[in-house]
Amino acid sequence: MSQRIDGMVSVVITNYNRALYLRECLDHIREQSYPNWEMIFIDDASTDDSVQVAREWHEQYRQVWSEDHRMVIHTLPRNIGFAGAINIGLYLARGEYIAIQDSDDYSHVNRLQRQVEFLQNHPEVELVGTNYYSFPSDAPMKRELANWLRYGDEIGKVYGRGGHCVCHGTILFRGRLFDQIGGPTRRITGAEDYEFIAKALNAKAKIENLPEPLYFYRLHNNQRSVQYYKRKESNDDK
Q: Model-level pTM greater than 0.85?
């Protein structure tokens, strides 16, 4: 196993037919206040213009990229689903930290900075999520603060009861956690994110949420969660 790069955050973005939202997502990663990051973009055989949008964006900002500050665009020849796509991204990540980012959402400019600082100040914690605003795609300023997240010891209790209280798109974790437990499997279709958090807790990893909203969750008819859940606040996410 190659050594992880100290201080680097590997931002893993999986995408399937999200061309309409991609530039906003990518721009907010590029504008992060935390300077040491790489972007791993996995396209799961999109049938829209997603790959073209990502490549044009990459070319537009080519002056940003270097060996230690790169964007990887990996296109899959066939659609393998969320679990398969995100595992590829996780395996390609080189950073000491790994952040998840959904391609139809976007992050606050200080998201990575706040989460890395939290883990640096709390060495006992392996994974940290954040609070977030949800907003309708057709009304981006109509934001609603999530109220279903839990904090501290309550997180383990919720998952112990089969509930869910960490928004997957917001999480940042130590790369060693993935090295230890691996990524999600395909055993729980539509709840792969729940499985990853549960696996981490079963491995005795300490998890926390930041109450500060550092993520913006877009509500639209084509998001993954609509296929399985009626509402985001029903203790699950994409």
A: yes
